User: Fold this.
Amino acid sequence: GLGLVNRKDENFGEWYSEVVVNAELIEYYDISGCYILRPWTMAIWEEMQKFFDAEIKKMDIQNCYFPLFVSPGVLQKEKDHVEGFAPEVAWVTKSGESELEVPIAIRPTSETVMYPYYSKWIRGHRDLPLKLNQWCNVVRWEFSHPTPFIRSREFLWQEGHTAFATKAEADEEYLAIPVIKGKKSELEKFAGGLYTTSVEAFVPNTGRGIQGATSHCLGQNFAKMFEINFENEKGEKGMAWQNSWAYSTRTIGVMVMVHGDDKGLVLPPKVASVQVIVIPVPYKDADTQGIYDACSATVASLTEAGIRAKADFRDNYSPGWKYSHWELKGVPLRIEIGPKDLANNQVRAVRRDNSAKTDIPRDNLVDQVKEMLDNIQQSLFDAAKQKRDACIQTVKTWDEFVEALSQRKMIFAPWCDEEEVEVDVKARTKGEMGACKSLCSPFDQPELPEGTKCFASGKPAKKWTYWGRSY
Ligand SMILES: O=C1CCCN[C@@H]1CCCn1cnc2ccccc2c1=O
Assistant:
């Protein structure tokens, strides 16, 4: 049958794999760590792209496309940040039967692909700011257990790379996922940059934090390495200040984990490619054609109002089967039209998130559906935020920290901001569940009373920081 075998709160890992496959988001592929993104996924990714692309265009950021392949010379150029990642780089060594003279790397990220050309294109201050973005795939040959969307060897993302003349110029809401915005620690930041900011989500079922998107101030590090210089107004030589930022298809996995339930996917209306599914409920001697016409008219008026609506007229499935099918695929709102609805010139709307049923008069259809979709979007966010907040534990001492970690919490603690203390926390929390690391120090810092001690070292605390196990 259609029902899921696994329960979200019982065996989360199996539940997740079953949902992403049965909701037709993913098909497993014969190469480990690689997944087929089916149309139901691509439609979500396209909705997110539409929103994000419009936003970056407002900031005069232009899209481009650089090659997938990286010549070894430039990849090694940025030694200190690549060395940690080197094992993940995939290489092309042959074409046909013949070995390549020089192996070619497949981009794991595109700094080393793009920046030699930034150096070539940026000559004078009039060439700045240069603000480019690309929507592409990247390959990172990871070995820790692969998870659809969350950890795959190839994924889609956008990567933005901007260059400015001065540092000053270089410094949430679709997926209904509550996130914490903050700064990464020195240990967790992108080694190639000055500092990293990120938006951190949390998966209550596993008690793990997960990075939703990231942004780096690169300072002049890459400009030094790739000679991205320019002549300023006074004819003096200047070196560019750069940022880079990204978010990827990993966010789709977070959405599944956060909003999904035991009936399957739950899609926030903003990213749902089908927001309303209309299902005819014919009855043996009722006016079947009249019901079908009412369904078509309902889809037409919703579509005209900019709502993404579809009817399911398949005659080889029962209404009940269709209800389960579209619930599994996470469609936010179902509209049923049966003989009674037809007679009363109304439709029956059923919400996916809380199964609430509402009879809507046909002549008030569009307004009430719009209102319900907005309400579903907001209540998904509110429910997720409430659940996430219930997982946050503020601690002051090491014992409280260890206890909270054992309860799979996201921990908020005063920290002395010393790197070796963070290294020590990771060492002391090593275990089969993985070590605990700092997630971010929120921009929105609560008051830190004078004399507050660091939870781990007992030294004077400098900032409040979130800690937890992570993906
Ligand atoms: O996050 C971003 C935002 C977008 C542009 N890239 C930066 C930093 C990527 C960090 N990174 C991540 N995995 C890697 C894997 C292999 C080689 C290099 C890297 C690597 O530099």
Observations:
- The pocket of 87F is lined by residues 81-82, 85, 88-89, 108-109, 111, 140, 159, 190, 214, 216, 244-246 (CB under 6 Å).
- The mean pLDDT is 95.
- The radius of gyration is 26 Å.
